[in-house]
Amino acid sequence: MPPESNPILGTLLHTVGAASAALCYAPQRYVKNWKWQTYWLVQAAACWLILPWIFAYFTIPQLGTVLAEAPGSAMRNSYLLGVLYGVGGIAFGAAIRYIGFSLTYALAIGLSCVLGTLIPTIQAGTLGQILSNTGGTFVVGGVLLGGLATFITGLAGFRKEREITTDSVTKTQFNPRVGLPIVVLAGVLSAVFSFSLAAGQPIADVAAKYGAGNFQGNVIYLFSHSGAFTTTLIYCLYLITRDKSAGEFTSAGGANLGANYALSILTGLLWYLQFFFYGLGHVRMGDLKFSSWAIHMIILILLSCGFGVAIGEWKSCRPATKLIITGAIVLLFAAVGLLTYGNYLAAPPATAAVVGH
Question: What is the pLDDT of residue 166?
């Protein structure tokens, strides 16, 4: 195990990344006179295409040599799995139309958390070994508790939307028979991003050999993110052609065009930074670093709920709904605690002593 392994610090870094992801959509509300596809393509180009190369250039020593030596199969697989992740993003957007944002967000993230964390260990045949030690049992318990807590936040969010929404059109669009299958697809394909990162690990191993250290994961994003951008580009171009909105890239209809670009790029930067800090946290999680995906997803939901409560989104809800979201937040905290403690227990004695110190 590398000397920098530190599960507690790793969890804190995952928290920074999750906070960045939870806040990334805030700039969108200030974008004026642009359709969704215009804004989304600009932020996606920043997040999925441009920023990965900038960060890799400055954090991966001898980047050209690393790419020349890295296995082509790892590059290909990471890219293709990134493409599937992009399909999940499109399904996520479609599901919101039929079951609302809160329910879509919670169900998709919950499925992604559990599937993206446990399936790779099942495929690798290591789940039994993980469960054979106390630390691994705590981690798997934390994953399952986090998935349950996430579903409960979705129930609370659904109740909130039904209680405070007066728009009859929004209510008549609610159709779980259509929305639930789509959100399941979104959750499953979102979990694929975890597989994309795992598939690209051989590339990171080469980067580590050339001194990338804790930043080694940044080289994987060149392939996983470009795959996601490919899907996003195709879908956005379809919408742009259908709506004849290409002119928005050079005009904001009287609004500040430069501000629209700046806000969209800021969204992309915040979205990318979650992966940057994810990588820094992942390399510090020790022998059970497979749990990074669950930690990231659960903290993301926890912070999203916490931000919503802090700004008063739940004030107008019924007492029962407030009680449900309070219970969900408590369970999310407990899940993060189990995951962190399990990783701490699994750390070698020397590492545990350093953390304790």
Answer: 52
